[in-house]
Amino acid sequence: MVFVPNGEDGPAAPTIDPELVARRAAASMRLEGPQVASPRAAGTYVVGMPMWMWATPSSTTFGPASASATAGGVTVTATAKVTSVRWAMGDGTTVTCRGPGTPYAKSRGKAMSPDCGHLYERPSSEQPEGRYQGTATATWTITWSAPALNDGGQFTETRASEFTADVREVQVVNTDCPARP
Questions:
Q1: Is residue 98 part of a domain?
Q2: How many domains would you assign to the chain?
Q3: How far is CA 159 from CA 1, 138, 173, in A?
Q4: By the number of CB atoms within 10 A of the CB, which of 37, 80, 112, 174 ranks highest?
Q5: Does 150 map to a domain?
Q6: Is 94 in a helix, a strand, or coil?
């Protein structure tokens, strides 16, 4: 309670920053890093063969997820969804994918992934634990609106998940060659 003598202006009304309220709404959501389905921790991959990368989408790993928050009588609604995944492959390369990736099917043979793939050029045998240590980082784009203020906007947040890849060399010996005299 504030005493304001007659004829004087009272204290200024607090200013509400709707983006801060939107960030509070986003903080209440369960936004996680990608649920990496491939490369699989138990999988073995081959140098020079296409590796298909994909994540299993859910509301907490790809969205959309929505929440609202209120401050000073202003309600802000925020909706979050993953707009890209940046895969740091552990070999010094990165791959940016616009979606969760396409799951591999045997019918695809040795084809490259149509939307999210990588080709290792060296085996992982000299890496720690004999595996490439990678990170899949999701960029969450949060779109917010505050209808009472006729305002809205966007901001991004990131969440990461780690993965490993056991990459080996394959050598083939042709035993069908005729012996030479």
A1: yes
A2: 1
A3: 43, 5, 45
A4: 80
A5: yes
A6: strand
3-class DSSP state for residue 108?
helix
Residue type, 117: G
- Determine the Cα angle at 123 with ends 121 and 127, to 5°: 120
Distance CA 167, CA 125 (A): 7
Give the Cα separation of 76 and 142 in Å (integer).
12
**Measured distance CA(86)–CA(157) in Å, rounded:** 13
With 0.85 as the threshold, say if the pTM is over it: no
Residue 169 and residue 118: Cα distance in Å, rounded?
16
Q: Are strands 94-97 and 74-88 parallel, antiparallel or unpaired?
A: antiparallel
- Six-digit token pair at 145? 């609106």
pLDDT tens profile 3-54: 567 766 655 555 789 999 999 999 999 999 999 999 998 999 999 999 999 9
Residue 23 lies in a domain: yes
Which of 12-21, 118-127, 133-142, 147-156 is the least confident region?
12-21
Domain that holds residue 156: 18-168
3-state secondary structure of 62: coil
Domain-located, residue 89: yes
CATH classification at residue 62: 2.60.40.10
Decide if 32 contacts 61 (C-beta within 8 A).
Answer: yes
